[in-house]
Amino acid sequence: MAKSDSGSDRQSGPTNLRTLLTRLAKDHQDHLKLCNLLEEIADSLPHEVDKSKCQTAINALIQRGQVHHALEETVLFPQMLALAGNDQDLRSTLSRLIDEHRTDEGHSDEVIELLGTLFANKRLENAEAAGYLLRGLFEGLRRHIAFENEHVLPKARELAAGSASGV
Ligand SMILES: [Fe+2]
Ligand SMILES: [Fe+2]
Fold this sequence. Notes:
By secondary structure, the protein is mainly α. The protein has four helices and no strands. It is elongated, with a radius of gyration of 19 Å. The site of one fe (ii) ion (FE2) has 6 residues, from helix 1, helix 2 and helix 4.
């Protein structure tokens, strides 16, 4: 985002940031529902799997990877760093979260493939490994989202409020 001393530009960044934060918080609620769905599928392995839940989870996982991470990495995190004056602690925290995004995306691709197998009624080679894969994804996502909800989004709101008041 371009820097400017004009009052209108000082206002537009934080206002947009607050709108983005509302969107991301809503995404997190949806992703936690997805985690619950993945847990239900894991608990139903190997013989009680609901195929419609697999299809819903596949669609949600594809959408999550494409949109939410991009909003955080290309819009939220750069705006936070700009408002925080390139705070090094914040930079390392956000860098760790970006690494977690790549890990989540790798796990997500494997889970999408697994869910496709379940949806097609194909036999699982190893139900225990499938359950482990699902749990690894939703447990990792829950930790990541909890950290962002407890630390990152409040910090971003604080930075937006400070900037809007001219601090
Ligand atoms: Fe994230
Ligand atoms: Fe997030």
